[in-house]
Amino acid sequence: MKDLKKKKRGLAKPRSNRAKKQPRNWREILRKGLYGTLMVGSATLVAVGSGLLARAVLDSGYFNVANIVVAQESRVSEEAIIALSNVNPGDNLLRLNLETIGNKVADHPWIARVDVRRNFPDTLVIEVVEREPVAILNLGYLYCVDKNGEVFKLLEGDDPLDMPVITGINRDYLIQDQPQVAGYLRHAVSLLEDLEGRRSFGLDEVSELNLTPDGGIVLFTYIAGVPVELGLDDYRAKLDRLERIYKELRPRLPLLRNIDLTVADRVIVSRSGAAMNGAG
Q: What domains lie within the chain, and their CATH numbers?
């Protein structure tokens, strides 16, 4: 018989592939945990401290408004602008809503644009750009029109009166088709700006600008109210033609019925019972 015991004793034990478990480094774990806790605590303390510092600065009065500076006012007084802003000395400069202040000041009809800014530590600056009236719009009541063609206020006794009057637009038309009327008014204002730079037939020679239903323009002379028909376009060239002979026409304006510039290269002057055709 085989010696089974002997064979069994000769068998080698299999090796284990499992790695030996390393002991935990509790000292390193505690060190990292303590470091993380300290970092979080420090950040919390910094945040809390910063908040308390900011609150202390806000409440210290260092940034309270001591001066309100209004720049470039002309028609609207400094007192009126400050009153519109609703800002008072002692208000905290940092807590002011600049956009809201600007909107309040811009509610004044003479104010076209507002810029509000802080000048630390205690000054609020309100810079305004006022509207520049260039014409009066007759809608039954008289209104001021600015250089952008915007109707911005009812004409009052202390407003400038030495401006051309724009006619031909009624109130209902203005309400029903505001975009088109605004375009007509910008067109009219552009023509008035062109007249302002002319020497012979300039803005001071015009008393009225009439907008026709088709969008054309008729000017009326300051002397005798003679209509000058410009039509729909090419105003500059037409006015150039008129200026070449206007010096001769001016003394005879009370005798004239009409000046027509709608025909190419011509100035047609109508008198009582007759018409004079002048080359441009």
A: 67-130 (3.10.20.310), 133-279 (3.40.50.11690)
